[in-house]
Amino acid sequence: MSLVASDLICKPKSKGGLGIKQITAWNTALMGKYVWDISSKADRLRVRWVNHVYIKNATWLEYGNTSTASWS
Fold first, then answer.
1. Residue span of the structural domain in which 63 resides
2. Quick check: helix, strand or coil at residue 49?
């Protein structure tokens, strides 16, 4: 198995790459969107659950995580 640099395969196909998305950039963007949804208390099942179980009556900025909390 040969390894190829991600900057080469993430180029658009028109520039000689494979057009694969950069996973780290997508992950950062999606985690930012997730935090935004939690802080704005969006009406989604997972967001309502996080607000009910973890944040309760606090805001996102007031929330202090516990040692048992997940990194995400």
1. 1-72
2. helix
